[in-house]
Amino acid sequence: MTTQQQEGEKRYDPKDTTLKFVTRQDDITLDDDPDSLRAEMSCGHAVTPQSLTAWCRSLLDQGQYKFKCPALKDGTLVKCCEVWAYSEVRRLAVLTADEMQYFEKKMATLAATEYCEYKQCPGCNTYVERADLSNLNVHCSVCTADKGHIYEFCWQCLKQWKGPGPRSDRCDNDACTNKELQLLMNCPTTSLPQVEGVTTCPSIRACPTCGQMVEHDTTGCKNIFCTRCNVEFCFVCLKLTPECLDTSEYYIACSAGVAPRQTSIPTWDRS
């Protein structure tokens, strides 16, 4: 496959001796354009500035700020998943000043959400932290000061709070529902072709440790890593991987079978 490079398109400087250039295909896009210079990442996989930028930006847009290599390990169907440092990504993706500003702002926001619960107040758009993870009724001190009376909003529907509180299920605003829970309960089923005996499984799960919504890409084994809490668990039985593997294996059905659809979302205990 050959493509004509457009004017202004990112490209490596062939005289840059700090990069290791390779002639094999791009391990992200599988492009083998002979006119496209490719460099090797620290994990050994080849990229172009365009493919690396696009992949890492897609991760940020999916709420992931850790840049993991998506390439398959040689001769296997297992993803590399090595984490690239931002400094490496910035250099080999040849990020522009605008791209660096976007990446760094997005990374900071996503990293912060990993360690605290906060959302934008619908009244003033400032970020408010939720101290009580079991209470959807959240007090905004900024709006309270500005308006001269107590202002509270709903963590779930992000509208001014209606009804009595505290509550953990919903406020009295119309259509105040837990969309993530509805997704868990109504998502379509999927199969894991490489896992013996797993032909029907909910396609979306909540991480049993932190409650992050996760999907399986249907390749490789049944165990996945949560990008939020970095815990590995079985997508099929929802047990943490060490417990699952006590009575099962990576590529065979769990002894406990397929866990039913989740009816609640775990709360992350960071203590």
User: In one word, what is the shape?
Assistant: flat
Series of secondary-structure elements, N-terminal to C-terminal: EEEHEEHHEEEHEHEEEEEEH
In the CATH hierarchy, the architecture of the largest domain is 2-Layer Sandwich
- Strands of the biggest beta sheet: in what spatial order? 1-2-3
Mean pLDDT across all amino acids: 89
Q: What is the helix fraction of residues, given as a range?
A: 10-25%
Give the CATH level 1 class of the largest domain: Alpha Beta
Uncertain segments: 1-7
User: How many structurally independent domains?
Assistant: 3
Q: Work out the helix count.
A: 6
Structural class: alpha+beta
Largest sheet: 3 strands, antiparallel
The total count of strands amounts to 15
Rounded to the nearest angstrom, the distance between the terminal CA atoms is 52 Å
Q: How much strand?
A: 5-15%
Oligomer description? single chain
Instruction: Enter the CATH topology name of the largest domain.
Output: Herpes Virus-1
Rg (C-alpha, Å): 23 Å
